[in-house]
Amino acid sequence: MFLLDDILLFPVKGPAWVIKQIIDRAQEELYDPHKVKMELLELQLLYEMGEISEEEYISRETELLERLREIREYELARRED
User: Which domain of life is it from (predicted)?
Assistant: First the structure.
């Protein structure tokens, strides 16, 4: 009986499941602290090689550190739920 229910409800449940999977993967990538840390390392390397100015380095570093803070807050909020 459950198989028949699954087959009959797939047109309704299927797209919702796919959308949820897409949202979950997008959130994982958006809130990936490893990715932000790698961007910070790349930024530091660009600065040390003289590819970017100190002002640009400070500006972009501030943005990345803010993203890292937001990721930590997001992770804490998810743990509390």
Answer: Bacteria
pLDDT digit string, tens, across residues 14-68: 777 778 888 888 888 888 999 999 999 999 999 999 999 999 999 999 999 999 9
Residues 45, 75: Cα–Cα separation, whole Å = 28
pLDDT at 23: 85
Nearest to 68 by CA among 40, 46, 45, 48: 40
- CA dist 35 and 27 (Å) reads 13
Terminal Cα-to-Cα distance of the chain (whole angstroms):
34
Quote the CA–CA distance of 11 and 13 in Å, as a whole number. Answer: 6
